Amino acid sequence: MPDSTPPARLVLTTTANPDEATRLARALVEERLAACATLIPAVQSIYRWQGEVESSTETLLLLKTGPDQLAALEGRLHELHSYQTPEFLVLAVDAASQPYLDWLQESLRQP
Predict the structure, then answer these.
(1) Helix H segments across the chain?
(2) From 52, 75, 90, 93, which residue has the greatest number of CB atoms within 10 Å?
């Protein structure tokens, strides 16, 4: 049975502030590791870090990419990110419009 999952993935990461999110987003889109990045400022995160419960205001970054870009995207995100352990969560896309998928794949294609 052929895989019917669209060739699109949504990657979530959080950043310390909107400036870092913008810097990461621009670099990843320019390098064609992400077709689009959506920044959602002022999300509140509560998490455990080094044995303590912490709380911080972060910027959520949603990266739209393809499965073939995931390894390089993760590596580059770790290089560029200010966090010691940046979030890198990959969500599969169950469905997407064909025109959007065409645009996504074209945006990720290296010249």
Answers:
(1) 18-30, 70-80, 98-108
(2) 93
Both tokens of 96, joined, read 């997407």
Amino acid sitting at position 79: E
| Residue 41: strand, helix, or coil | strand
Task: Using DSSP, state whether 56 is helix, strand or coil.
Answer: strand
Q: What is the CA radius of gyration of the chain?
A: 15
How far apart are the C-alpha atoms of 12 and 30, rounded to whole Å?
18
Q: HSE-up of 35 (CA within 13 Å, CB side)?
A: 19
Q: Is 72 helix (H, G, I), strand (E, B) or coil?
A: helix
pLDDT tens, 20-71? Answer: 999 999 999 999 999 999 999 999 999 999 999 999 999 999 999 999 999 9
What is the reported pTM? 0.91
Please report where in the chains the tokens 């200010």 appear, as a residue: 82
Cα separation, 78 vs 100, in Å, equals: 28
Tens-place pLDDT, residues 82-106 = 999 999 999 999 999 999 999 999 9
